[in-house]
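call fold target=Putative stress-induced transcription regulator
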Amino acid sequence: MDLTSYAALAVLLINSPERLNDLAGVTSLLAEAGHEPHGRKVTRTDLEALRDLREELIAIFEAAEEGREHDAIDRVNSLLILHPVHPQISGHDGQPWHLHLTEGGRLADQYAVGAVMGLAALVTDFGLDRLGLCQAAPCRRAYLDTSSNRSRRYCSERCASRANVAAYRARKRKVPVAG
């Protein structure tokens, strides 16, 4: 099981604040993340729990971005205590046997366990510097740096292109015209 792929759940939650406005948005977020309710109703408690989790995850990414390593790790550890892992072997949808991190508890708890365990695995396997916030002003969306040379600085190709074009234009304005 590649727990680091679960870290994408943290990024999805951070980058989807508009989906935490109502129960329909949370339902679509959970479905996109593979935590479909399957006959269970998403509750206001789930909505509030995911809002709280989002704020904690943002604080982790900000601490990592600012080089506050101990703060970021303390926050991850606090979330690991709050959302203990309950692994379970599962076989569904024609897939071979595989691990799921939890099947019990609230839907928000299931999401939290995956996101937090994913971040913990990514940080311990690859380092805290793999968590980032987009450097394209004013974006600040979260990303995971999975590049081989730890060079990612933007959340998307769109932001990278926009930042590069802005830097190019700024350089062009500073170059004196020959003549």
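return ok
The mean pLDDT is 89. Residues 3-174 form a domain with the Jann2411-like fold fold (CATH 1.10.3300.10).
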